[in-house]
Amino acid sequence: MNNTELRGAFSLATVYVLRMLGLFMVMPVLAVLAVSYPDYSPLLVGLAIGGYGLTQALLQIPMGLLSDRLGRKPVIVLGLSCFALGSLVAAQAETLQWVVIGRILQGAGAVAGAVMALAGDISRENQRPKVMAIIGIAIGFSFYLALLLGPLLAEQSGLQGIFWFTAVAAIACIPLVLFVVPSAQNLSPSGDTLPKLADVGSLLADKSLLRLNISVALLHLLMTLMFVNLPKRLVGLDWPLTDHWMLYLPVLLLSVLAMAVLMRFGKQGKQGPVINLSIVLLGLSLAAMAWLQAPLMALLLFCWLFFTGFNYLEANLPAMVSSLAPAGKKGSAMGAYASFQFFGAFVGGALSGLLNQYANEQFSYMLAALLCLVWLGLIRGIGGGSIHLKRYSLNLNSEAMSVQDSLALVSRMAGVRDITLVEDEQVLYLKVDSREFNLQQARQQLGIIS
User: Fold this and answer.
1) Which domains does the chain have, with CATH numbers?
2) Strand bridging mode 389-395 / 427-433
3) What's the angle, vertex CA 383, arms to CA 379 and CA 384, rounded to 5?
4) Coiled-coil region(s) at which residues (predicted)?
5) I want to staple 418 with a disulfide (CB 3.0 to 4.6 A). Which of 96, 139, 386, 431 is the partner?
């Protein structure tokens, strides 16, 4: 990676981390601190925790498309401004209803697609996976960091302090985007980074992709539901909010180790059974949490089971979407996937809040466990795809060979499983078996200059 790619990768990763911290830091604390608002209700708590997911789901694809028209950086700055505005509204809120409105405004800063597209624009084709990997690691890291920092910051400055922090962080990201993130130098083929409206409908009709989309919606529904209830349970066990990080830290570390074991089995061609096992772990942990008198050690064990299953699915579902998406339509597939993901978080918050208001916490957990049983039936048979499938995009050299001749040549190459030509971009999108396909040889035969 050259200096431009390194600077772009780490600066965009920083933007992502600070933005996701703002969304996630309130999750482990809001259910406890919300009781101080005069209009407190369990339903409003659920909406405040998951409300960001509604606008994220609705605007994820439109904001990505807008970045193709207005440019990546203007759209990212617009998204960060919306996020900062929502944080300020929530920070100054005197009622829980206004906190909900602030969280919904936070979600309007749906810049994930534009950030990923910009990351593609500033990186060379052979270095693009590394840039994307750095940003992907940062996204996962931000969630764990939020669980640890949220209770500490809330103890020092309350819920309002968290929202003030996220507002300042979002505003600080704007000059970072404008002056530190490199401007686009070689535009990446948009099919692998940005959604296209013409593709979304057909991808939603794909049964395999639809099952994965519903899976990530259920996953984040369950995660949000748990955080509507878990912090109050810990406080009820005489653990003050400021000490919750000491409970989360070992649970998260041990769950990452357990996930690594599951990943090893998955790489041995057993991905389908490991996915089923992860869902079973989620269901068992949620069913066990319905035991409202569980001692602390038992509750931490249930959390460990939950996060082990959650971590594996969170890491592997996107890879499965990428593998199953047709060549040249990865951006559209991932845009739809992200929309389902955030919508699941919204439904989880609203559903758990509603159940806590009109039923009880125990009923919420049992319903969540039942959803895992339904999920097992839904996902049955998936996960058996080849782990050797990879994607490439080739910018054609029309001076060396005509577009149609290039297409015919590539279609005859060993290992090519799917191919899409976008004539307007002069790009071939390939899905290939890495054991048979030789990228360097393909570039040489097509006369593509590195």
Assistant:
1) 1-194 (1.20.1250.20), 200-387 (1.20.1250.20), 389-446 (3.30.70.100)
2) antiparallel
3) 130
4) none
5) 431
